[in-house]
Amino acid sequence: MMFSEKVSLLGLWFCITLGSCTMDSSPNYIDWKIVTTLPQEAGTLHLGLAGPVAGILDDKLIIAGGANFPEAMPWEGGEKRYQKKLYIYQLRDKEGVHLLSTEEFTDSLAYCANAGDSKVFYSFGGERNGKATADVFRYSLQRDKVIREALQPLPFPLTNAAAALIGKHLYVVGGENEQEVSNKIFRLNREKKNASWEEIAVLPNPVSHSIVVGDGYQRLYVVGGRRKNSMAVTTFYDIVYEVDLPNRKVKQIASLPQALAAGTGIYYKGNLIIVGGDNAQTYHKVEELIMAAQQTDHREEREKIIEKKNDIQRNHPGFTRRVWCYSIKEKKWDALNDLEGESPVTTIALLYKNTVIIPSGEIRAGVRTPQILLGEIR
């Protein structure tokens, strides 16, 4: 046996026995399909949910809370309703996703950040009836029942934040409330009793509706998002930040191919996979018309502007169906195959083995989808 062969075999032995080698590889294709929907309510199709509490526990998909417009669209005077149902689905490799039970949820929580692993997941902040909260909860399964426990609240109320779980630490990034958009990154030691949240880094820009994923070891990635502005259209970001957690340093890496907010994403074998999102094209048109209506003193002109705005919302084209993959090693973005059908935002992407799960979400202004979307990574 040649010396080089001995070295190669020795290296392989270390990889197998110590589990210290990771094989980064970029996916070529994601096979998307709608496997099921949220169950009917009173004999009618479920409207779907934006901002649900969601996670995976012991091969079960949990979906709870969320918000929708059951009576009418918001531009027609419809009121947003915060829901109080909890759904448990069984995940099976070859048999799809099957509803196990529908229960009453103890809360009307929506637009929280979610993060977890296969044994436990967490919700951070969110809102109830339009008001941001600082509440943090841990969810687990005991005898097929979802158990919720309160943890140390966030330093201040935040909705539309993003979160990640890495080792023993929970991280919450950005978010917003009535007063401001946050640029803070907070951390909590989940294994330390009575631990408090600590600020570990500050982003260059305040951001809500971003996608945050962790590499499972020592880095966070903050992708896109947006920032509301006073008397100006909302800023949408194409910025991607890499956060070096041990050194608490933030650096900007390759920008998104387009500015996006409210999409979903995962970390997969050295890649950031970003699914869908709002590219601001329709969002900014609506904002500009709202500001124009506020600035005119003429009732008839204002009514015409509002009707034009309403018409744009009624005919919302939906959100981008593009799926992007960023190779951290190669430092470049590539397009994967588009989503088929309508693209949900304001929800979460969950990784189950080699499958991406996207439960419910918003597909157009004011319109939700009851679909549970699965994408097998190939």
TrEMBL record:
Signal sequence bounds: none
Keyword Repeat: yes
Keyword Repeat: yes
Alphabetically ordered keywords of this record: Kelch repeat, Repeat
InterPro entries: Kelch-typ_b-propeller, NANM
Gene3D superfamilies for this protein: Kelch-type beta propeller (2.120.10.80)
Superkingdom per UniProt: Bacteria
Pfam family for this entry, one: NANM
SUPFAM superfamilies found in the cross-reference section: Kelch motif
The name this protein goes by in its record: Cyclically-permuted mutarotase family protein
Organism for this UniProt entry: Sphingobacterium thermophilum
